[in-house]
Structure formats: C-alpha cells, structure tokens
Amino acid sequence: MSEYINLLIGIAMGLNLLALGSSRLPTLIMAVALQGMALGLMPLLMETEADWRLVLVALATVAGKGLLIPTLLRKAMRAAHIDREVEPFIGFVPSLLLGAGGTIAAVALARSLPLLPEHSGSLLVPGSLASVFTGFVLLIGRAKAISQVCGYLILENGIYLFGLLLIHYTPLMVEAGILLDVTVGVFIIGIIVDRIQRAFDSLDTRKLTALRE
Amino acid sequence: MKELLLILVPLAGAALAAAWPNNRTRPWLLPAVCAGHVGLSFWLLVAPPAVAPNAWFAFDPLARAVLPAVSLLFLVCGAYGVAYLRLRSERPNRVFVASLLAVLGLISAGHMARHLGLLWIATEGVTLAAVPLLHFNGTPRAFEATWKYLLVGGTGIALSLLGSFCLGYASLHGGGGGDLTFSALTAQGLHLSQPWVKTAWVLLLIGYGTKMGLAPMHTWKPDAYGEAPGIVGAILAGGVTTVAFTAILRVRGVVTAAGLGPIADRTLLAIGLFSMLVAALMLLGTRDFKRMLAYSSVEHMGILCIGAALGRAGLWAALFHVWSNCLTKGSLFMSAGNLRRAAGGRTMDEVRGMAVLAPRSAALFVAGMFAVTACPPFGPFFSELRIVRAAFETGHSGAMALFLFCLLLAFFGLTRLVFAIVDGRPRQAARAVRRQFPETLGIILPPLVLLGFSLWLGLHPPEVLQNAWTAVADQFIPLP
Q1: What counts of helices (H) and strands (E) characterise chain B?
Q2: What ranges do the domains of chain B cover?
C-alpha cells in the first residue's frame, strides 16, 4: 500500500518542478490541479477499512482542489484577458535549481527528524517540506496575482501532505473544518483578485506599490 | 454551556445582519449584539463557570482574563459604528456589519478554543471574516492593502497549521493517543518528542506572530490599518491580535511542559525586542498618522511578548497590558478616523491645524497619544512599569535598557507626528469643515469612554480582573 502512496507523492514532487519550470499560466494551473487530485486520493489508500465520512472528505478534496479551484482560476484568467506568460522575478532556471535544491534539502532534513516506525519509509515528510518550499518560491518569485495564488495552493498542498501523518488520530470534524477554511480562503482570494483586476485593470502585482514607506 | 453563547450569539447576529433589509437601521444590530456579548462575558468574568478538563471550548482562565476586554472594545466600536455608517450611508453596509459580528463570534471561539485544530480553524476564520472590513472604502489602495493582508496573513496562518501538525506529531511520537486538546498535550509533558516540539514552536511563533504583527512578519499591518476604516483598525489592533497572543500563550504552555520553557522564553524575548526596535525606528520615519498607529501596534505586540517571557510577574503584567493596549488603541483609532475624515488627508504634509478644525477629536487624539506612549496615569504606564519590574526581578537588565530606549524613540516618533498635524494653521476654511463634519456625540463619546476605561484601569484595576490575571499565572507558571 505504501508504494502507491509514495508513487503519488513522487508525482506530486515532480509536479512541483513542473510548476516551477512552466512559463505558461495554463500549465501552472494544470500542475496545481493534478497535484490537488493526487493528494485528495491519498486518504483512501491509507485507510484500510472504508469509512463513508473519509470517502466524503476525500471526494470533497479532489473536487475542491482538483476541479473547482482550478476552474475558478482559469475563469479569472480568461475574464482578465491577461496574456498567458508567467513573468517571473526569479527566472525559470534559477527557480528549477532552487526547487531541486529544496527537494534534496527536504529529504535530508526529514532524515534528521525522528519518525514513527510506520512512517519511516514514507515520502510524506520530504514531499511535504519540498511542496512548502516550492510554494514559497512561487509566492516570492512570480509577478502575476494568479501565479501567486498557485504558489499558495502548492504551499497548502504541502501542509495537507504533512497532515496525512496524523490522519488516523485527528477527529474528522477538525479535518473537515480545515478543508472548509482553506476552500473559503481561496474563494475570498479569488474575489479580491477580481476586484484588483477591476481597480487596476491588471493582475500584475508590480503595480501594487502605492503603499510603502 | 452558556459560554458557548459567546460564540453563537454574534454568529446569529451576523446571519441576521446579512438578512436585514434596511441599510439605515442595520448598523443598530452592532451595539445590540455586542451589548449582549458584554453582559454575558462580564457575568462569566465575575462568576467563572467550571471547566471540564477535556472540553473543546471553555471559558477557562485565559479566556476569562482576555475575552471581556475584546468584548468591551467591540461594544464601544459598535456604538461608534452606528454613527460612522450613518456618515457613510452612500455605501451598502450589509457585508460590513455581518463580517464585523462574525469576527466577534470567531474571536470568542479563538479565545475559548482548547483544541489545537479548533484554535487554528477559529484564527483562520477571523482572518477571512476580516477581509471585507478592510476594503470597505473600495479604493484601489484599499484593494492593494487587502491583497497584501491576504497573502502575508494567509501564508502565516498556513505555517501555523503546519506547526499545529508538528505539535500533533510530537504527541503521537511520544506515545500519545491523538488527543490534541491543550490539557492533554500539557499532561503528556516530557513524553512529547522534543525535536518536533521545537519545530512546532518555531512554526507556530512565526504563524501566529504574523497574525499578531510581530516584526519581521508585520509588513501587512501598516497597509491594512492605514486603508481600513478607524473602527476596523481598532478591532484588528485590540481584538484580532489578542487571539494570536493567547494562541502563543497556550502553545507556550505545552512547550514549557515539554521541558523547553527556557528556549521559548528566550525566543519570545528576542522577537519582542526586535519588534519594538523595528517599530520605534519606523515611527521616527513615517509621515502618515494612520500608519503610525500600525507601527505603534507592532511595538505593543512586542511588549506583550517581552512580558510573557519574564516569568510569573511578567505574564501577569502582559495580561494587564492586553487590557490597557486594547482600550487605549481603540480610542486612538477612533479619534484618528475622525481627524482623517475632517482633514481629507493622512500625512503630515497635507494635514495641519487639526486643533482648530476638529478640536474635540484632536484633544482626544493627543490624550490617547500620551496614554499609548505610557504616560501616567493611564493604563499602559502601569502595565509597562510592571513589565520593567518583572524584568529586573528576573535579571534581564540589558533587555530592559533596550526596551526603555525603544519606548523613548517611539515617544519621539509619535509626538513629532501628532503635534505636526494638531498644531499650526489649517489649510481649509475652519467653518466649512466644521459644518461638513460636525463633531457629534456619536463619534466623540466612544473614544472618550475607552480613554476613560484606560484611565480607570491605570488608577484602580478592579479586584476581579487582578484575580483573573493571577488565575492565568497560576495555570501556566504555578508558584513553587
């Protein structure tokens, strides 16, 4: 069972690099959507007996992270008539090198932390740290609001991966609450992106410079 | 069970506000709901209910010591909100009133949450519910501020979720059964896995510190406070930040139980002093009086962290400071809002002579400025004095030298800017401004009342409050 999970995490880590290296917004959004779906499926693989609430949470995650949010982002992209280049602050090759270095560092760091025997062979911790790092690189290194939202989603995905370590122990209600909060958060970000587009006639965050000392 | 009403009543009020048809009468829901909340929270303050050890929400000593202050602030802000929204009657206020009440309900939930996951859900909820409040003015600058708030605040809150998971894993690794209430985690104590607790502490301090506005994670604060309406600034500075502070205190309790108390205290002291230093330096440079209040808030969050790092007496003083900061800052934000409207500008380059244009608000602003820079006999003076005393008792004289130096710089910075806008000859015709923005009772009385409370707190802190603060000190740092 754990090979399948490691395979999914490996795919998610590969998608991190794809997100860092892609120069087109649709590719970036697709990478985030695929990663969300891969993560959403994981709870089903980890649980030995099927619990209907767990299935519900997994389905909600796949639908939210894999379908709903990417659809919203694509819609925002089309409505804003923005050209589809990503426009990096940190170039694609440096981003990729950073991402690769971050992934190696994540694996090394995860080795130095004590893990329970049932988690010792799993890629959960390194995958999670690598995604968090990728999210940060995208948040800092991209100019368009939509690419920053994608960075934020990858960061969230990394944290979700870490949360899977605790899946047998946290009450499902708490997990559902966290999922709800994250979804509502992205909705609100979407609304603000829309307002920024109307107020500034652009989604380029380099134009948001009125407020500074 | 009645403590749950503190969460449910404002949320029900928010739902009612969302459904209320009339734009003109809707703001009255604010003081009505907040009055109920104040009544309930002060009743529970005087007669604290029994706390079940494994309850997920409870009016425990920490909630009792802090929540009534927030509740009082909301009531006064609600009263001011009625007058404010009448002045701004051109804008629909449905979302504004509903969000404000939702923020109150979620802040109450955050203060009373005794479960790691629920605490995070409540804090994230507060962050999201505050978003419509920030861009109430609908200007491009307001949207820019909201975007920065969302991105910085969202990242911070995401890191605190990661930290919560790490703390959960520390418990799991130490043989815990997955009970993530703070009482269970504290009871596990030295069995918690120390490397994971350290990781969790760093992430949670950064995460909740972002929400609190500690430097260097404070960057969203000047933008948000500068662009939001005055009452929103008051609520963010006095209410929302306290949720993050109690969250840090609760986590610190677990970290101390795991035997890492000295590390936690050192980091709190360092980040507190750094916040004070950054805020003091920025206060010397800023020319915008609403952004000035934001830096002052960063400074006071630093003071709270320093107090919390200084043992029993320091923690007591920090809780005292939560109250005095909450009430004083509330008053300052409201009078600053009045000045901003009358002046039509926000920097010392555009604004001067406010003592002529809006004499009562200007007087309140100056008095509030003296209160917040810890001049006697207002509350902040006495709470900061106690922090200084606690520091000398615990042998932190070097840190105190820096602390007092930062206070002095902040005093220079604040007085420089405040007197620049209050004094001098006004640019506009005084009579026209006074006719357009009359200083009615509705916008003068609320800041005056809060300043009065701050004075009362300084001269004679009520016995019941002192007992409430002592109860928290007993819980976290028991007498040997």
Answers
A1: 22, 0
A2: 2-476
Chain A residues in contact with B286 by the CB 8 A cut-off are 213
Q: For residue B115, what are the β-bridge partners?
A: B181
DSSP letter for B310, please: S
pLDDT at A50: 67
Name the residue of chain A whose CA is nearest to B178's CA.
A169
Predicted confidence (pLDDT) per residue in A102-127, tens digit = 999 999 988 888 888 888 888 889 99
Q: Which residues in chain A have Cβ-Cβ distances shorter than 8 Å to B120?
A: 178
Question: Looking up tokens 């989604």, which residue turns up?
Answer: A203
What is the per-residue burial (b if ≥16 Cβ within 10 Å, else e) of B245-255?
A: bbbbbbbbbbb
Confidence bin at B129 (pLDDT 50/70/90): very high
Distance of CA B107 to the CA centre of its chain: 10
Contact call for A185 and B128, based on CB within 8 A = yes
- Residues in contact with A105: Cβ distance below 8 Å, sequence separation at least 6, in sequence order: A129, A133
Residue A129 lies in a domain: yes
Say yes or no: A176 contacts chain B, CB-CB below 8 A.
Answer: no
In 10 A of CB B69, how many CB atoms? 25
Q: What is the ipTM of this complex?
A: 0.91
Give the closest of A163, A188, A213 to B128, CB-based: A188
Residues β-bridged to residue A142: A88
**Would residue A75 count as lying in a domain?**
yes
Of A181, A189, A211, the CB nearest to B226: A211
Q: Does the residue A64 lie in any domain?
A: yes
Domain range for A105: 2-207
- Report d(CA B68, CA B46) in Å as an integer: 11
Distances from the Cα of A175 to the Cα of A54, A182, A183, A206, B167, angstroms: 10, 11, 12, 36, 16
Which residues 167-206 in chain B show a CB within 8 A of chain A?
Answer: 168-169, 172-173, 177-178, 180, 193, 195-196, 199
Name residue A24's beta-bridge partners: A85
DSSP single-letter state for residue B24: T
Is the pTM for the entire model greater than 0.90? yes
Tokens of A101: 């270095």
Q: How far is CA B430 from CA B66, B342, B357, in A?
A: 42, 10, 5
Measured in whole angstroms, the distance separating CA B100 from the mean position of its chain's CA atoms is 15
Residue with tokens 């994230």: B124
Name which of A187, A188, A170 is nearest A178 in CA terms. A170
As a whole number of angstroms, the distance between CA B361 and CA B335 comes to 5
Higher per-residue confidence, A175 vs B392: B392
Q: Which of B54, B150, B225 best tests the A interface by mutation, with the highest count of A CBs <10 A?
A: B150
- Count the domains in chain A: 1
CA atoms within 13 A on the CB side of B232: 28
Contacts of B141 in chain A (CB under 8 A): 210-211
Per the document, the length of chain B is 480
CB pair distance less than 8 Å for A200 and B286: no
> Considering only alpha carbons, which residue of chain A is nearest residue B149?
A189
From the CA of A142, how many Å to the nearest CA of chain B? 13
Contact residues, chain B, for A152 at CB < 8 Å: 151, 154-155, 158
Residue A132 domain-assigned (yes or no): yes
* Local structure of A38: helix, strand or coil: helix
